[in-house]
Write a structure and sequence with these properties.
alpha+beta; 5-stranded antiparallel beta sheet; two-stranded antiparallel sheet; 23% strand; elongated
Length: 205
């Protein structure tokens, strides 16, 4: 009887996981992390979110079944849903951490330079564009990703942290995208909305 109850709880937990996954996929926007992460929708790549949700659903279902008294089915379903959400959030955070570590490792390796005659030198993999020269110092107003091209959907190549000062080599013409430099070499793009000049930093003093 104990084994049967455990198997039934695990089955209910799996059913709850599928239900939670369907709801999360329906309400979560593509390429964005929901406010409270669901079973799907992690912006960082990887499969740990789904695995965490599965393990969390089973563990939560078993726990809910054991503490719910006479109404074990409801307890199992509620426990599975809560466990799936918690496991999903943990898995998504692990994926973000792995992505950040990979980006940091890339930052520590000097990127080969791809010199261009019609603009600033660029790190290999950074797409060229039509520029208006800036050569000024700016800082990030929030933590934001650097992109390989002046496009929000392009590949992530690094990150600027809030308050971090950086070299603004150029602005992409007819856009607000800024080419971020390191030692005179373009290493990625950031939207101007998330940046300010050094003079803006001290304007209120």
């Amino acid at each position: 009887m104990r084994t049967f109850t455990t198997h039934r709880a695990a089955g209910a937990a799996f059913a709850a996981l599928l239900t939670t996954a369907g709801l999360a996929a329906a309400v979560s926007p593509a390429h964005a992390d929901p406010l409270i992460p669901g079973v799907t929708g992690c912006a960082a790549p990887g499969g740990k979110q789904a695995g965490g949700a599965m393990l969390g659903a089973v563990a939560g279902g078993l726990l809910g079944n054991s503490v719910s008294g006479h109404n074990r089915t409801t307890g199992t379903l509620v426990g599975a849903a809560v466990g799936a959400a918690a496991g999903s959030a943990v898995g998504c955070q692990i994926q973000h951490n792995e992505e950040d570590r990979a980006a940091a490792a890339n930052d520590q390796v000097e990127a080969p330079r791809d010199y261009r005659r019609d603009g600033p030198p660029l790190s290999r993999g950074v797409a060229p564009a039509s520029y208006k020269r800036l050569d000024s110092a700016m800082f990030a107003t929030k933590t934001v990703n650097l992109r390989a091209a002046p496009d929000q959907d392009s590949r992530r190549v690094g990150k600027l942290h809030r308050g971090e000062r950086f070299e603004a080599l150029a602005q992409v013409r007819d856009t607000d995208w800024i080419l971020v430099g390191r030692d005179g070499v373009g290493v990625g793009y950031v939207q101007g909305y998330y940046t300010r000049t050094d003079s803006d930093r001290y304007a209120s003093y």
